[in-house]
Amino acid sequence: MANVRLGIIGLGAQGGAYAGFIAEGKVKNMVIGAICDNDPAKKQLAGEKYPDVPFYDNYIEMLESGDVDAVVTCVPHYLHPEIGIETLKRDIHALVEKPAGVYTKQVQELNDFAATKPEVKFGIMFNQRTNPLYQKVKEIIDNGEIGNIRRTNWVITTWWRPQGYYNQSEWRATWGGEGGGVLVNQAPHQIDLLQWICGMPKKVYSNVKYGYQREIVVEDEVTAVLDYGNGATGVFVTCTHDIVGTDRFEILGDKGKIVVDDSKKVTIKRLVKPESEMSATMNMQDVMKIFMGGNADDIYTEEVLEFGSVWGGQHIAVLEDFASAIVEGTPLLAPGSDGINGVRLANAIHLSSWLGKEVEVPFDEDLFLEELNKRIAKEGKYPVRG
C-alpha cells in the first residue's frame, strides 16, 4: 500500500483540521479517501474544498464503498466505540478520537473486539504522546532518574470556556450527548499523560462541581486526590472557568523532582543522594547550612529544558504514526486499547463525586453506568445507555 486512504467521519473542527493537513501533503503515506457527515452544510463545504473526494452521509455506506483503508472518528464521544467496532469488523483500520468512549463498559467492548482483529490497526488520537516534552518526562521517569514516585500534582486550568461555547450545540455539556464536561472534553489528554507517565492510581477521592460557574449540568470544576497504593499520592485539578489559567505538573521522587510549566519548560532536579539517605546521615548543622543560603550543588543538580509550541504538528505526528503502522508495520505510539485507562480514571473521579466517597480502581462498572443513566434520565434529552 503506497498511501493510506483515510475516511474522515465528521467534518467539524477536528475532522476539518485533519482533512486540511492531509490535503496540504503534510501527512506522509496518507491521502483523503472519503469524507462522511450527516450535516448538509458539511456536504456543501466538502464539495467546495475537496471536490474530488467522495462524500457520504452514512458512515456504514462509506465503510462498504471500497474508498477507504482506514478511518478517523471525529464524532461525539458516545459514538467512538460503536464506529470503531463497525470499522474493524470490515477489516478497516480505525483511529478513534479521544476519549475512547464515555464509560469503560463500552470501551471494553471495543477493546475486546479489536483483540480479535490483531491484523487490523487500532489507534487513538493521543497527540500529546508525540509531544517531545512529555516523551522526555516519561523517559526520565522510566529510567529511574528521580527514583520512585512519592507525589504527583497537576493543576491544568487553562481550559477556559465562556457560556457561549456551551450554547453553540445542544449536545455539548450534557450527560446524554457528551457524557460529561471538562473530564471528557478538555482534559482527557492530561488524564492520559498522567497515567501514561506515572501509572494508574489504586483509589480516587474527588470533589467535583457541576454547573459551578457555567449554566450547564456537567462538571466545570474538578479536584481529585489520587492514591497509588504504595504510599504515593497525587492531586489533579482542572476547570473551565479560570481565564488566567495555570498549567503546572510536578512529580516528586525519592531521588529528585520534575516540574513542567505551561507544557513548555521542564525543570529536573536530581538529588546527589536519595532523600532517605540524606535524612539518615545529615546532622542539624548540615541542615542549617542548606536553609541559610548553603550551596545547593551539595544537594541536587538542576537541568532546565525549553520546548516550543507544536500545535498541529502533534496531530500530524499521530496520523503519520498510524499510517506507518499500516504501511510499514511499525508499532503504534498510542494503541487504541490504551484509551480505556483515561476513561477509567475519569469515570472514577465522577463516581467518587456521585457517591461522596473514595472509590477503588477498577470500580464497579455497572454501578457507574447506573449512576450515569440516572443523570441522563433526569436531563430528559437522550435515551439511557446500555
TrEMBL record:
Residues in Gfo/Idh/MocA-like oxidoreductase N-terminal domain copies: 5-118
Record-linked SUPFAM superfamilies: Glyceraldehyde-3-phosphate dehydrogenase-like, C-terminal domain, NAD(P)-binding Rossmann-fold domains
Residues covered by the GFO/IDH/MocA-like oxidoreductase domain: 134-258
Classification via PANTHER family: D-GLUCOSIDE 3-DEHYDROGENASE, UDP-N-ACETYL-2-AMINO-2-DEOXY-D-GLUCURONATE OXIDASE
Protein name (Swiss-Prot/TrEMBL): Gfo/Idh/MocA family protein
Species per Swiss-Prot/TrEMBL record: Bacillus salipaludis
Taxon lineage: Bacteria, Bacillati, Bacillota, Bacilli, Bacillales
